[in-house]
């Protein structure tokens, strides 16, 4: 057995979900919404199964979806893309990440990672032969500095893997941070793989800024998006990969020998969905922002110190001011004694973790959130 995967422990996500099932707790740990997704997009997928093509679609993706991706990013992010040479469709963003790392890394190459990080990043980097170099981000702003980058970039740096907006921090890297990263990548000849699956799930009037909009990164970056996150259809696993032609040529070879292609009916439905008017996307963000605000207010009332949530489905609380610095133990107690499941953010670190921050998912119905708040109000009351 390959030890990278064989030796992986049971994840805290599995532990918390299992505890939630066993205790009947309200599960705010897993990052998926209660909403079933837009009915018209789902209807398009159903129609395409019955009356559409169900054999192998083109390896790079249906032409209409690749065109829709290019048009969508031009409209929403002011990116000019060639759908024939710069857009590829994958079976989800995780496949896109795996393929990019396999295509861009040789054994011994160094990869810069920003922690906290999505849990798939490190195993995929290691399996591709990469040597991880960590930048540690800390609350409340989760920013990196020039000194942070100088400490991890070396002549062996080949790839930088970044998540923007950042899960689990629910934060967004501003333009000046991306510009700084671009200068380092130029200096060291590195390629950025940018996981931008939360690009539409941003709040308070913000607009997503892609790495491809940074001049120094336009020809040395891979942008990854997700229909699952855009349309709250997380089980569909339809990803978008965008990169300059020279990079895409290699990425496509990795994709060819991973999944080769993606269900054509889902591709057809996503192509339709990406053409929806601005009102849909604004409404989706407004609904999630309202849920965020509802849950934020309830957490504050319950006595939690709540960190800013600029994007994603998540909101974090910092327990340090309450003298709590073991987020894993806190989450286990939260499930067992208060009936709410959350995720300790230390699980998203490979080393020197922040151990006082806990993540909740607010992409739930009001009754779910209010039910959780009714229980959470007792956490510090009981302690007092």
UniProtKB/TrEMBL annotation:
<keyword id="KW-0663">Pyridoxal phosphate</keyword>
<comment type="subunit">
    <text>Homodimer.</text>
</comment>
<protein>
    <recommendedName>
        <fullName>aspartate transaminase</fullName>
        <ecNumber>2.6.1.1</ecNumber>
    </recommendedName>
</protein>
<dbReference type="GO" id="GO:0005737">
    <property type="term" value="C:cytoplasm"/>
</dbReference>
<dbReference type="InterPro" id="IPR004839">
    <property type="entry name" value="Aminotransferase_I/II_large"/>
</dbReference>
<dbReference type="GO" id="GO:0030170">
    <property type="term" value="F:pyridoxal phosphate binding"/>
</dbReference>
<keyword id="KW-0032">Aminotransferase</keyword>
<dbReference type="GO" id="GO:0004069">
    <property type="term" value="F:L-aspartate:2-oxoglutarate aminotransferase activity"/>
</dbReference>
<keyword id="KW-0808">Transferase</keyword>
<dbReference type="InterPro" id="IPR015421">
    <property type="entry name" value="PyrdxlP-dep_Trfase_major"/>
</dbReference>
<comment type="similarity">
    <text>Belongs to the class-I pyridoxal-phosphate-dependent aminotransferase family.</text>
</comment>
<dbReference type="InterPro" id="IPR051326">
    <property type="entry name" value="Kynurenine-oxoglutarate_AT"/>
</dbReference>
<dbReference type="Pfam" id="PF00155">
    <property type="entry name" value="Aminotran_1_2"/>
</dbReference>
<dbReference type="InterPro" id="IPR015422">
    <property type="entry name" value="PyrdxlP-dep_Trfase_small"/>
</dbReference>
<dbReference type="GO" id="GO:0016212">
    <property type="term" value="F:kynurenine-oxoglutarate transaminase activity"/>
</dbReference>
<feature type="domain" description="Aminotransferase class I/classII large">
    <location>
        <begin position="25"/>
        <end position="376"/>
    </location>
</feature>
<dbReference type="InterPro" id="IPR015424">
    <property type="entry name" value="PyrdxlP-dep_Trfase"/>
</dbReference>
């Amino acid at each position: 057995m390959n030890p990278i995967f064989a030796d992986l422990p049971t994840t805290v996500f599995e532990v918390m979900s299992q505890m939630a099932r066993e205790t009947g707790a309200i599960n705010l740990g897993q990052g998926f919404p209660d909403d079933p997704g837009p009915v018209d997009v789902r209807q398009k997928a159903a129609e395409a199964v019955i009356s559409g093509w169900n054999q192998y679609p083109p390896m790079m993706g249906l032409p209409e979806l690749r065109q829709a991706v290019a048009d969508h990013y031009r409209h929403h992010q002011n990116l000019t893309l060639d759908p024939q040479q710069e857009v590829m469709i994958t079976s989800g963003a995780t496949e896109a990440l795996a393929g990019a790392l396999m295509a861009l890394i040789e054994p011994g190459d160094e990869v810069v990672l920003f922690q906290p990080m999505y849990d798939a990043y490190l195993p995929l980097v290691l399996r591709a032969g990469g040597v991880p170099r960590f930048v540690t981000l800390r609350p409340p702003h989760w920013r990196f500095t020039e000194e942070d980058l100088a400490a991890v970039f070396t002549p062996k740096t080949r790839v930088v893997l970044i998540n923007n907006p950042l899960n689990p921090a629910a934060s967004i890297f501003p333009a000046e941070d991306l510009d700084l990263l671009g200068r380092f990548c130029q200096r060291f000849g590195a390629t950025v793989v940018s996981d931008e699956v939360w690009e539409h799930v941003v709040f308070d009037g913000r607009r997503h800024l892609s790495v491809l909009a940074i001049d120094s990164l336009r020809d040395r970056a891979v942008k990854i998006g997700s229909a699952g996150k855009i349309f709250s259809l997380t089980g569909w696993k339809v990803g978008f990969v965008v990169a300059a032609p020279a990079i895409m040529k290699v990425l496509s070879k990795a994709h060819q020998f991973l999944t080769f292609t993606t269900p054509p009916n889902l591709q057809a439905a996503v192509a339709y969905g990406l053409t929806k008017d601005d009102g849909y996307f604004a409404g989706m963000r407004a609904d999630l922002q309202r849920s965020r605000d509802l849950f934020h207010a309830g957490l504050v009332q319950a006595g939690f110190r709540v960190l800013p949530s600029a994007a994603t489905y998540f909101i974090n609380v910092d327990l340090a001011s309450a003298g709590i610095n073991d987020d894993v133990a806190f989450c286990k107690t939260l499930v067992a004694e208060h009936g709410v499941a959350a995720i300790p953010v230390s699980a998203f670190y490979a080393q020197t973790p922040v151990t006082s921050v806990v993540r909740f998912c607010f992409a739930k119905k009001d009754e779910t959130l209010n039910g959780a708040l009714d229980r959470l109000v007792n956490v510090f009351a009981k302690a007092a």
